[in-house]
Amino acid sequence: MRSYEQQCGLARALDMVGDRWTLLIVRELLIRPCRYTDLQYGLPGIATNLLADRLRDLERDGIVTREAAPPPVATTLFRLTPRGEALKPVLAALGRWGAPLLPDTSPDANFRSHWLVLPLELQLHDQAPDDSPITIEVHTGDQPLVVQTTDGTVRVRPGTASTPDATVSGTPLDVLGVLTGTLDLDTARTRGLELDGDPETLRRIQPIGAP
Fold first, then answer.
1. In this structure, what is the dihedral angle of CA atoms 168, 169, 173, 175, given to the nearest 10 degrees?
2. What are 127-148's pLDDT values in tens digits?
3. CA 109 – CA 80 distance, rounded (Å)
4. What angle do helix axes 9-17 and 22-31 make, rounded to 10 degrees?
5. Tell me: the pLDDT tens digits for 107-129?
6. How far is the C-alpha of 196 from the C-alpha of 31, rounded, in Å?
7. Whether the Cβ atoms of residue 5 and residue 30 lie closer than 8 Å to each other
8. DSSP letters spanning 118-142
9. Alpha carbon distance 17, 211 (integer Å)
């Protein structure tokens, strides 16, 4: 990438992470360390050679590192360095800025359920941290997610739970709206969302001040 050649922190940052796909690679690695194939799956539309180029640039700039994973993975894993992890609040701010644009996105646009990990972890809040932990299984997109309270915080990961306290199924926007309290549960149900479990389980993890 050509440099802006400006003595400005923003310009220098964009010299490193302003290329197309770069911040989305960082998004994937903020969620979890990735194999090359994981990155390809999480970045639908990226050309293989372009992904390789972007990873090489990110490694050169000290944002990404690679390591040999032990069996049974036994392949190269890419992960963020501390310098790369420092981009998390930047991506969070961009995500909040872009959230109002989501309803206008084409219904045919790509979606991966693990893309909800970061926005949910950033917004959800355990409003009863002294109570027993709860687990919610979420079904939307390509694979289920697990939302669980742990030591007063809310963690989200791809996967399933053996005995969830509640299970939510619906479109990505409806699921996100119900979990964050921006969409009324009754309204979501009329749009096809399904909840198996006590609605109070959902309310416990909604952001403070949610309706």
1. 0
2. 999 999 999 999 998 999 999 9
3. 27
4. 80
5. 889 999 999 999 999 999 999 99
6. 27
7. no
8. HHHHHH---S-TTSPP-EEEEE-TT
9. 37
* Domains, the chain: 9-100 (1.10.10.10), 113-205 (3.30.1050.10)
Q: Give the span between the Cα atoms of 130 and 167, in whole angstroms.
A: 22
How much of the chain is in helix, strand and coil states, percent to nearest 5?
A: 45, 15, 40
In order, the DSSP letters of 59-90 are HHTTSEEEEEPPTTT-SEEEEE-HHHHTTHHH
Tokens representing 107?
């219904």
Q: Model-level pTM?
A: 0.92
- Given a contact cutoff of 8 angstroms between Cβ atoms, the answer to whether 154 and 126 are in contact is yes
What are the φ/ψ torsions at residue 17 (nearest 5 degrees)? -125, 15
pLDDT score of 210 more than 90: no
Q: Which two tokens stand for residue 38?
A: 């994981």
